[in-house]
Amino acid sequence: MPEDAKPAYRRVLLKLSGEALMGGQDYGLEAATVKRIAAEIKTVHDLGVELCLVIGGGNIFRGVKGAAAGMDRASADYMGMLATVINALAMQSALELEGVHTRVLSAIPMQTVCEPYIRRRAIRHMEKGRVVIFGAGTGNPSFTTDTAAALRAFEMNCDVIMKATKVDGVYSADPVTTPDAERFERLTYREVLQRDLRVMDATAIAHARENGVPILVFSIHNAGALVDVALGHGNCTVISDGG
Question: What's the distance, CA 127 to chain centroid?
Answer without folding.
Answer: 20
